Amino acid sequence: MGIYSIWVLEYGYTSNFPKGVALHGAFNENARFSYAYVLIKGNGVVAMVDVGFDNAAYGKELHDRFGVENWKSPHEVLGSCGVCPEDVTHVFVTHAHFDHLGASDHFPNATFYIQERELTKWVWAISLDRKFRWLTAAVDPGDIIRAINLAQQGRLVCIDGVREDVLPGIDLYPAHDTHTAGSQYVQIRNEGGHASGDRWILAGDLVYCFENLTGTEEADPAYVPIGLAMGSQTNLLLIADEMVRKVGGEAKRVIPVHEARLKDTFPSRLTEAGLHITEVTLGAGQTSCVR
Amino acid sequence: MNALELNVESPSESVRGIMNADMDNGSIAYAIGMQQPFECLQSAAAQLAGVLILAATGSRSGSPDHPILAVAIGNHQQAVDGMGSVKVPAESRHRHLHVKRASSLIADAILTFRSVAARKQSNADAALVLLVRAWNELRIASLSLPGCGLVDFRQSCCAEHQKSIGISFTAPAIQTRQ
Q1: E strand or H helix at B42, and its extent?
Q2: What global pTM score does this model have?
Q3: The domain A5-281: what is its CATH number?
Q4: Complex ipTM, two decimals?
Q5: For each successive 10 residues of chain A (291 residues), what is the average pLDDT?
Q6: Chain B residues with CB-CB distance to A under 8 A?
Q7: Are residues B128 and A149, on separate chains, in Cβ contact within 8 Å?
Q8: Which end of chain A has fewer surrounding CB within 10 Å, N or C?
Q9: How many structural domains is chain B composed of?
């Protein structure tokens, strides 16, 4: 067993998502799309990858216009694993989209780690003519304002490139000019050392669904990018390959949090609130949240 | 045909959405007229937030001399000009009050950050306080102003795009007390 437990916690979903956004070329197909974040626990640490969005800010619009259903607060979602938002000390922000950074206010004791480029390129993008507004879609300036507060409190750490052992056995890797300008992904070396064979990658939105890593033909695997790249789809393919290589070629160890079928791949359970908890791995001496 | 449609050639999707809103005609005209000023205010606030985040994270470019502040000032002026040319019906006076407050607070925030004495952290802090208040005013206004969202979700990963087309908008009641 490794050091850390990893759970993917659904906090909402949309039932009828256009799959072409998740998988380039999958036009006219629809699928369930999970909104989720990752809880990492072990070695006396409670950390998260992303924090979801705050329903108070735009939940009604997301529900009414975009079919986002059954949003639950971090307090309720984490509570189903016996954790309070106040327990979380580290948050690794894969990118600054509202559904990954928006609920930062719910985590008063956490320090947030983000690639500096994610902020500087956003600032650049908002200085452009409004015809370029697509570049800033899905970033809530309200989240940036909250991030200023975090920085003033010393709770925002801007990273430039790779940061190894941000916590023991946990590394942050840049994925610049992919889904967003300053995306990053998280590697967990669950045996701690750099030779660890028990590795997991939490991919943020670099991967939306399994097919991004495998293609649609089992007999002829291929990388297929997500359908939403503010950077380059070529870069997305190269990063997909980099991540798969880091986990020894075992694509299953690259975790796409929006993938609704994740629950069928790992042990999971449906909470009373109708949301899925997926137990990617259980750390030594820890209690399962799905059994 | 809606009378307003006669005055709008090839309306955009958002204007069509406003025209379908469950509001009186005066407020619909107001909401259409306020789209551009609102967006300019939103942009000005975001641009100021951009410089403040650079300043707060220790970037040398996060100074009152950053060129994006000039863009923010331009956007704010455009908003003021636009608001001045919009007729405010009685039914929308309260909405307008929030937008005006936001405008005033954004102007104060930019001025505070840019002032000669602003070369110290305390003025960045003061600008942030004003910006937070401004953003809250914009948020309140956006709740009852169709076509004036604070975040553009239409092209974001969340969008179940089909639902966003032809959407009708029901403006929630606004409290008249402060």
Answers
A1: helix B25-56
A2: 0.89
A3: 3.60.15.10
A4: 0.87
A5: 96 90 90 95 96 82 78 96 98 95 96 96 92 88 92 95 97 98 97 91 97 94 94 97 97 97 97 97 96 89
A6: 39, 42-43, 45-47, 49-54, 56-59, 61, 67-68, 71, 125, 128, 131-132, 135, 139, 149-164, 167
A7: yes
A8: C
A9: 1
